[in-house]
Design goal:
By secondary structure, the chain is mostly beta strands. Among the domains are: 120-286, Sulfite Oxidase, Chain A, domain 2; 298-419, Immunoglobulin-like, CATH 2.60.40. 9% of the residues lie in helices and 28% in strands. It is built from seven helices and 23 strands. It has a five-stranded mixed sheet with strand order 4-3-12-7-8. Strands 5, 6, 9, 10 and 11 form a five-stranded antiparallel sheet that branches. It binds ligand MTE and molybdenum atom. Molybdenum atom binds at residues 106, 152-154, 253-254. Ligand MTE is lined by residues 103-108, 150, 152, 177, 206, 208, 210, 212, 239-240, 253-254, 256-259.
Length: 421
């Protein structure tokens, strides 16, 4: 017996019960809204009448998906080398995993062309036995896998601005991605090196021309840090740290040092450039909040979102991603009336700690203007703030860790735009 679910809205402006789609799309009249009801003669297109293409050593997406790409590309100031970032096309993706070719990339001085046979990882400083590892040596350790998001601390920073920036889910929020990472737990290597009790931090350094380095509390290194060698089943891509990167689940993207070559155990943080002049939060009255490690709970509706046009009144699935650097997403609420009323979204399994979580809720759009919002709560009880709340606490100088609630305005024409509610 199917559970009876009332189709009257559960919150303002047409939000419907999150369990409704479980009954099947036909039961709620979606088939006649989206598909065509008349049974036509089965088409026999050209590709059915001739043999298909030959096989490929490494698969590629359909040629019809050519618009699904990282971007926007920054100005090429140095002729194809040097610093830059591209963002994941969140509005084109589904589920919780970012395909490797679309994982956002942020590099402070380009992508090094590392020969894995010549790469070394050194663990030294306050340890009993300094150790050097080749990629080959590390690959012989027992591996663990976990799904984790990485988010740049600068993601969504445009939402601190005084006017609602024009943009898409990708251009505003695309400095976040999620992959299954496989590698060696850092704790295992630290144990082998023998941690000196005086050590409280470690400095992680990359082998790129930026020599990016960050100080990390040793406790994180002994907890869930990983020397990752694989990304979604294959060797990490050059842009994401080949042949190895530090994975610090839930922490600022910047600390997940790519092209990792050195871990040095120390007593105190090194006060590197990227933890002083950058990646700190400028607050009110000249105060600076340094060492903000976990990325707080956040969510974004990806469907519908700017660039995806609504095709007339009817029932739609609103879908998006939510995440927290402090644990699991406990719930996501969605509003279609600019935050006046909220309805609980369904969370798609699996819901994992420090991973992207997909949420969904049915919505009957009546064809009128609407403001769509999502609000994540994590299992620590932390609730994603409104714009007023976040700017109220941080002031208007803040650049990083922006996790305020995003508003997508839907016009009567079905156009979706970033707005401030
Ligand atoms: N060695 C090194 N590690 C680095 C960077 C870098 O420029 N050099 N960029 C950092 C920043 S700012 C971020 S947000 C993440 C981005 O990871 P991704 O490019 O795999 O998405 O890597 C971090 N690790
Ligand atoms: Mo970053």
């Amino acid at each position: 017996m199917l559970e009876h679910i009332d189709e009257t809205p559960v919150a303002g402006n047409g939000l419907l019960d999150r369990r409704m789609f479980l009954r099947g799309a036909g039961a709620i009249g979606l088939v006649s809204a989206a598909g065509s009801a008349a049974a036509e003669t089965l088409m026999v297109p050209a590709w059915t009448k001739t043999p298909g293409a030959w096989l490929q050593g490494y698969g590629q997406p359909s040629r019809f998906e050519g618009n699904v790409a990282r971007g926007p590309f920054p100005a090429d100031l140095y002729g194809g080398i040097g610093p830059g970032s591209t963002r994941a096309p969140l509005q084109n993706l589904e589920g919780m995993i970012t395909p490797n070719g679309l994982h956002f990339e942020r590099s402070h001085n380009g992508i090094p062309d590392i020969n894995p046979d010549q790469h070394r990882l050194l663990i030294h400083g306050l340890v009993k036995r300094p150790l050097t590892f080749t990629v080959e040596a590390l690959s012989r350790y027992p591996m663990t896998s976990r799904i984790a998001f990485i988010e740049c601390a600068g993601n969504s920073g445009a939402l601190y601005g005084p006017k609602a920036a024009e943009g898409t889910a990708q251009s505003l929020h695309g400095l976040v991605s999620c992959a299954e990472w496989t590698g060696v737990p850092l704790a295992m290597l630290l144990e082998e090196a023998g941690v000196d009790p005086a050590a409280k931090w470690f400095i992680a350094e990359g082998a790129d021309a930026a020599s990016m380095d960050r100080s990390v509390p040793l406790a994180k290194g002994l907890d869930d840090a990983m020397i990752a060698l694989y990304q979604n089943g294959e060797r990490i891509r050059p842009s994401n740290g080949y042949p190895m990167r530090l994975l610090l689940p839930g922490y600022q993207g910047n600390m997940n040092v790519k092209w990792l070559r050195r871990i040095k155990l120390v007593r105190e943080p090194a006060m590197t450039r990227d933890e002083t002049s950058k990646y700190s939060l400028l607050l009110k009255q000249g105060h600076v909040a340094q060492f903000n490690f976990p990325m707080d709970a956040k969510s974004v509706i990806t469907k519908p979102s700017p660039g995806l046009t609504m095709t007339g009144p009817g029932i739609y699935e609103i879908s998006g991603i939510a995440w927290s650097g402090n644990g699991k997403v406990a719930k996501v609420e969605v509003s279609a009336d600019g935050g006046k009323s909220w309805a609980l979204a369904a969370l798609s399994d699996p819901v994992l700690s420090k991973a992207l979580t997909r949420f969904r809720i049915p919505w009957r759009w009546d064809g009128g203007p609407a403001i769509l919002q999502s609000r994540a709560t994590d299992d620590s009880g932390y609730v994603q703030p409104t714009r007023e709340q976040q700017i109220g606490v941080r002031g208007s100088l803040a650049q990083y860790h922006c996790n305020l609630i995003t508003s997508w305005g839907v016009s009567a024409a079905g156009e979706v735009k970033h707005v401030y509610a």
